[in-house]
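Weekly sync, protein design subgroup
Attendees: M.S., D.O., the rotation student, P.L. (late)

Item 1: inverse folding check
M.S. brought a backbone from last month's batch and wanted to see whether the design step gives back something sensible before we order anything. D.O. pointed out we never logged the input encoding, so this time it goes straight into the notes. Structure tokens as presented (674 positions):
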């Protein structure tokens, strides 16, 4: 029996694809200002709608039970405590077929009653209370009229067109946003009036009221990513009546997650000072801005890790959670830091004194501090998709038991190790063994490759393949964003398929040398740039018996003009723009090596993937099919780039069945004798 399950006694089978419908996931967490009550949302699959629902719960930190505020069927989000802790706001959208629209709900802790404010059109997200409790600020998708637009003419049928004037006119997970922009709105609770604060062709996000409630801070992001504003800048707006202005007019880098503190004299944020264009490989660290002087400095100089959760798994749609949080009146600023595949919780004061609170072979995926030092946080590890904990004066205790059914199932324990990849490099790696593993026998291997963002999070997909009989291996090779330093992360730029491929093959050789890997029955798979690496591998070696390329990059030349992050994404991965160095960009495109691809290949893609558009999959399928290779293309309708993490439950289950079925067909699941 694996160590991870030794505390559970006898267990039943391991996990299968259909078990997805049993999961519940802790999502948003917010701790009341007095640190005594946790509000949180729990997300669950909903079979009737082939979607998800989420409910709001309240739980005292001293109670063994929580209270559900939303027993009906719908989606709750953007939970936020009023500054005095007397009320909880959340955004609500019903999933019932006969209910249209959304609303903001205000729950009173004292009376246990709710006020409901209907919101026509797009829902409000990112809610935050003003100091006096009379206003809520939020963000919503809003059409922005252009002076050149013309309305329909009398007697002429209305045309069906999309007018595009900005880049990122389509965004993965959202769709076509050519004439819609995220704008800041304020809900006046006394009058129910909803007032728009921003009105420009820019996307605004993360609004926060000042502690005195007289000003708003938020992030503005232009859709041209090769400008300063395209990376994200902090704006301040006096309310009511003020016009937004940039807090740091000379800032050339990126800003994210502004939070007020110190009597509104300072704003802490995550950021970097690299000029545009950049991508996610450039680390953001904590900064402190002086509001009056309009300057900022780094709080922890030399911090060579990334603020946020940059591990990847299949439990949460978002991969980053780049946030800073600063409870009103508290000296500490809290943040997550990804370090060697773990996500740890830190805090820092305005003088730069840093303290580590939560660390381990695990992932802190959400957190919420209160004045005085209490912190509620969500914690996941390879044996649990996550529960909610409270940290008080150096001690942690678990408040929830969200997935008790897992205790009745076998769970594989990922064995962590490092291997020598040559050139003085060590690569962080994991291996998950199937139930009943016998090192004297040989097992089929499924190797996962990605953008090197594997982590200590729970992974249903890995568990289901291990349960089927496979060894499951995954490596954080060079280029990772999962906490191995900035130099290691950017080393693969301009060398896609170079040293990262070489390190991966060294890792495979190391596994084969152990004696229990059947090298004639090895498969490889990965998604996004892991799909890229899958395509690259089968174009450079025939040692794998089967491969599954998921949401995979195929051709950087066409991706530059079709992906929502096309120009900056291509330039920062390949090191060049195709119009400046066509040969270098083509050389790093897997389709250039299609003639050398002989491995049976399953291509899995989504038709609404705007991060890596469907045309990428179509290109490779057409080329390989034309050459008579064994290839199959499975297209999931209505899904985006995040299919594996947030797609419709039925599609997520089918995706796992297709992947395991392809490997079952070409590798088999049974171990062989020596």
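Designed sequence read out in the meeting:
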């Amino acid at each position: 029996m694996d160590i991870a399950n030794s505390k559970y006694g006898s267990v039943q089978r391991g996990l299968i694809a259909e078990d997805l419908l049993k999961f519940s996931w802790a999502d948003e967490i917010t701790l009341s200002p007095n640190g005594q009550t946790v509000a949180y949302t729990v997300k669950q699959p909903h079979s009737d709608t082939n979607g998800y629902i989420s409910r709001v719960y309240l739980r005292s930190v001293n109670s063994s039970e929580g209270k559900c505020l939303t027993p009906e069927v719908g989606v709750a989000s953007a939970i936020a405590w009023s500054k005095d802790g007397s009320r909880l706001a959340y955004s609500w959208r019903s999933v019932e077929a006969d209910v249209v629209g959304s609303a903001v709900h205000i729950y009173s802790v004292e009376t246990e009653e709710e006020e409901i404010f209907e919101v026509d059109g797009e829902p409000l997200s990112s809610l935050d209370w003003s100091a006096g409790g009379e206003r809520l600020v939020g963000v919503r998708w809003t059409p922005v009229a252009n002076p050149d637009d013309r309305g329909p003419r009398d007697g002429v049928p209305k045309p069906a067109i999309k007018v595009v004037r900005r880049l990122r006119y389509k965004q993965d997970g959202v769709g076509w946003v050519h004439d819609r922009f995220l704008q800041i709105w304020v809900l006046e609770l006394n009058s129910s009036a909803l007032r728009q604060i921003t009105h420009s062709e820019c996307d605004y996000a993360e609004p926060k009221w000042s502690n005195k409630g007289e000003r708003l801070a938020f992030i503005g992001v232009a859709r041209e990513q090769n400008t300063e504003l395209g990376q994200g800048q902090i704006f301040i707006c006096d309310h009511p009546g003020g016009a937004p202005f940039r807090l740091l007019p000379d800032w050339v880098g990126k800003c994210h997650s502004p939070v007020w503190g110190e009597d509104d004299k300072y704003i802490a944020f995550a950021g970097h000072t690299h000029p545009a264009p950049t991508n996610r490989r450039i680390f953001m660290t904590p900064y402190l801005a002086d509001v009056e002087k309009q300057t900022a400095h780094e709080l922890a100089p030399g911090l060579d890790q990334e603020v946020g959760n940059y591990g990847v798994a299949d439990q949460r749609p978002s991969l980053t959670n780049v946030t800073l949080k600063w409870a009103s009146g508290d000296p500490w600023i809290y943040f997550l830091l990804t370090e060697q595949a773990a996500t740890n919780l830190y805090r820092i004061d305005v003088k730069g004194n840093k303290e580590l609170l939560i660390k381990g072979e695990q992932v802190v995926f959400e957190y919420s501090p209160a004045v005085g030092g209490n912190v509620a946080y969500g914690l996941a590890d390879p044996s649990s998709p996550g529960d909610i904990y409270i940290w008080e004066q150096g001690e942690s205790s678990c408040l929830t038991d969200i997935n008790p059914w897992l205790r009745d199932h076998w769970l594989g324990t990922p064995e962590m190790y490092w291997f020598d990849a040559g050139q003085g490099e060590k690569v962080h790696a994991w291996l998950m063994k199937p139930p009943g593993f016998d090192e004297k026998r040989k097992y089929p291997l499924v190797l996962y490759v990605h953008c090197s963002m594997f982590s200590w999070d729970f992974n249903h997909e890995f568990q289901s393949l291990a349960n089927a009989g496979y060894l499951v291996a995954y490596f954080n090779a060079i280029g990772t964003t999962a906490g191995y330093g900035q130099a290691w992360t950017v080393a693969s730029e301009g060398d896609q398929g170079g040293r990262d491929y070489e390190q991966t093959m060294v890792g495979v050789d190391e596994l084969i040398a152990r004696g229990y890997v059947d090298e004639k029955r090895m498969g490889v798979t990965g998604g996004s740039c892991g799909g890229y690496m899958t395509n690259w591998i089968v174009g450079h070696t025939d040692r794998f018996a089967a491969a599954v390329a998921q949401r995979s990059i195929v051709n950087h030349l066409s991706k530059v003009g079709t992906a929502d992050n096309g120009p900056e994404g291509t330039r920062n991965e390949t090191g060049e723009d195709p119009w400046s160095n066509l040969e270098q960009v083509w050389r790093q495109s897997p389709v250039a090596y299609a003639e050398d691809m002989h491995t049976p290949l399953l291509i899995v893609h989504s038709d609404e993937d705007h991060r890596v558009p469907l045309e990428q999959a179509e290109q490779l399928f057409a080329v390989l099919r034309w050459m008579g290779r064994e290839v199959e293309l499975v297209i999931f309708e209505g899904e985006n780039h995040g299919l594996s993490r947030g797609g419709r439950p039925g599609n997520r289950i089918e995706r796992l069945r297709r992947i395991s079925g392809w490997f079952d067909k070409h590798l088999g699941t049974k171990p062989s004798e020596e």
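Discussion: Residues 410-667 form a domain with the Rossmann fold fold (CATH 3.40.50.1820). Residues 649-667 form the longest helix (19 residues).
Action: P.L. to compare against the previous round before Friday.
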